[in-house]
């Protein structure tokens, strides 16, 4: 089967960039991205592509090239489903906030709604592709909905997990380490797999495209994220030991990273990992393991989250302790709110939890982030429901300029590793702050010696 029309349900951090790159690389395929959210689609269609709703380096240029040619954004979900041969599901799968599995299992209500909608509309055979990260064996549930509520139409379900990381989404998509496609081992399943392999072959070498059965593909995504997150929690665990023993975690990371069996990536000690995937996927893995009665497996992976929570709390405690055990009424400036650099995404960002702890200690928080809006920061804090929105509004000040944000502060805390922070005139910042002036570098991006030479009391992570 030759694919000429693709639809993607969900115009978020995964669906938007992925479809933009498919459209750019496959001009012969019409790609329509649909979403229920009218504002989001309007933003994707904004004539000025700098205003698209997701900030990713290089993305607005790709959208400018392909939009209107073979890339379309629309709220007309039904029409796009009807026309497409392949439907990607890229909707959100947050951790459940209610009922069985609350706080652990993935909430599949959006996925199920999509499946029901596809079943209702489809009049011809279709390939349905799971793009969102899902619990292992979700494809089975989707298949059951499609087969039992459809119009006799044949569906093939493929799992094609997305491995892009935010902030580098475009380069990850253009030059992926691998593409993973899981499908049925039946002849129809193999045909569907091959059709999707053909799409990716337009720009990815064939030997980087792996095909597996559906369950392996689904579980590989959870496993990859669990391993990556585990590396961060492992190095963060060492960072605490380094602080007690006089070792330096950056030196330890470098030394172990040169062992080719370990490798140097994902060994950067930090205030803790954030993002929409790691915590959610590990909790999901823990839930699945528990549901099969595998308590040792569940406990093993849960420890990665426990360590990460500890690291965030340890950072806020360190700030309080260093500032003479009280931060009440002190101005503490956060540089960065996003969960990592080069993204405007704040989901599960360490900044939210550190701010919450410090506000509980009655600190006055000022924030500067190059890409995150004030309303987003306040809604992140409101989501924790620790205090009223009005209180959050009164206690958090947001600046468009880092120097203004740091003016008169008792301490600066670096929560995101934005490159621009390294290029600041730190002497100027020092001069404008209360003395002694403290810097808590939650990302280890500044040079301790240089900061101390200026006069700062500098504390990084793990040294
Ligand atoms: C992750 C996976 O990398 C990606 O493959 C998957 O598709 C989605 O989840 P993402 O969450 O977008 O991607 O970003 P990632 O670069 O993995 O960073 C996650 C968090 O870990 C960030 O908060 C980052 O700052 C932190 N991190 C990363 C560290 O603290 N240290 C490191 O060495 C690497
Ligand atoms: P991700 O990071 O996984 O891409 P996002 O929350 O950024 O997650 O994007 C998911 C998108 O899916 C949201 O814009 C949401 O409005 C959309 N969505 C959820 N359910 C449906 C649905 N049934 N039909 C269309 N769009 C949906």
Automatic annotation (TrEMBL):
Q: Which residues bind substrate?
A: 162-166, 221-225, 261, 268-274, 339-340, 443
Its pathway is:
Nucleotide-sugar biosynthesis; UDP-alpha-D-glucuronate biosynthesis; UDP-alpha-D-glucuronate from UDP-alpha-D-glucose: step 1/1
Q: Which Pfam families match?
A: UDPG_MGDP_dh, UDPG_MGDP_dh_C, UDPG_MGDP_dh_N
Does the keyword Aminoacyl-tRNA synthetase feature in the UniProt annotation?
no
Q: Briefly, what is this protein's role?
A: Catalyzes the conversion of UDP-glucose into UDP-glucuronate, one of the precursors of teichuronic acid.
Q: Which family does it belong to?
A: Belongs to the UDP-glucose/GDP-mannose dehydrogenase family.
- Indicate what this protein is called per its UniProt record: UDP-glucose 6-dehydrogenase
The lineage, from the top, is:
Bacteria, Pseudomonadati, Bacteroidota, Flavobacteriia, Flavobacteriales
């Amino acid at each position: 089967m030759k694919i000429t029309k693709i639809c993607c349900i969900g115009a978020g951090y995964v669906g938007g960039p992925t479809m933009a790159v498919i459209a750019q690389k496959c001009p012969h395929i019409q790609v329509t991205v649909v979403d229920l959210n009218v504002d989001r689609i309007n933003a994707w269609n904004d004539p000025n592509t700098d205003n698209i709703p997701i900030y990713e380096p290089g993305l607005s240029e790709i959208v400018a090239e392909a939009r209107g040619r073979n890339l379309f954004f629309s709220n007309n979900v039904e029409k796009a489903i009807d026309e497409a041969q392949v439907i990607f599901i890229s909707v959100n799968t947050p951790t459940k906030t209610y009922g069985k599995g609350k706080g652990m299992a993935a909430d599949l209500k959006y996925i199920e709604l999509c499946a029901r909608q596809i079943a209702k509309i489809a009049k011809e055979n279709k390939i349905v592709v799971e793009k969102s990260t899902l619990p292992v064996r979700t494809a089975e549930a989707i298949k059951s909905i499609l087969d039992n509520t459809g119009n006799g139409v044949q569906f093939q379900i493929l799992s094609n997990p997305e491995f892009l990381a935010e902030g580098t989404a475009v380069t990850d998509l253009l030059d992926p380490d691998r593409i993973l496609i899981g499908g049925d081992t039946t002849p129809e399943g193999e045909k569907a797999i091959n059709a999707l392999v053909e799409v990716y072959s337009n720009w990815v070498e064939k030997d980087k495209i792996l095909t597996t059965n559906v369950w392996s593909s689904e579980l590989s995504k959870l496993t990859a994220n669990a391993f990556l997150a585990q590396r961060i929690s492992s190095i963060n665990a060492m960072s605490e030991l380094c602080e007690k023993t006089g070792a330096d975690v950056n030196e330890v990371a470098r030394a172990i990273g040169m062992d080719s069996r370990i490798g140097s990536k994902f060994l950067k000690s930090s205030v803790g990992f954030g993002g929409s995937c790691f915590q959610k996927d590990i909790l999901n893995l823990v839930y699945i393991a528990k549901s099969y009665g595998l308590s040792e497996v569940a406990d093993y992976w849960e420890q990665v989250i426990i360590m990460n929570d500890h690291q965030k709390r340890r950072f806020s405690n360190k700030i309080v302790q260093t500032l003479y055990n009280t931060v009440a009424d002190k101005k503490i400036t956060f540089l960065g709110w996003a969960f990592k650099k080069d993204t405007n995404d704040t989901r599960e960002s360490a900044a939210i939890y550190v701010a919450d702890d410090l506000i509980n200690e009655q600190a006055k928080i000022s924030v500067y982030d190059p890409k995150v809006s004030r309303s987003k920061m306040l809604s992140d804090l409101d989501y924790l429901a620790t205090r009223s929105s009005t209180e959050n509004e009164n206690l958090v000040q947001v600046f468009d300029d880092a120097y203004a944000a740091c003016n008169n502060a008792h301490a600066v805390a670096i929560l995101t590793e934005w490159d621009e922070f390294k290029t600041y005139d730190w002497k100027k910042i020092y001069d404008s702050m209360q003395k002694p002036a403290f810097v808590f570098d939650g990302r280890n991006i500044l040079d301790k010696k240089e900061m101390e030479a200026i006069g700062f009391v500098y504390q990084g992570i793990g040294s």
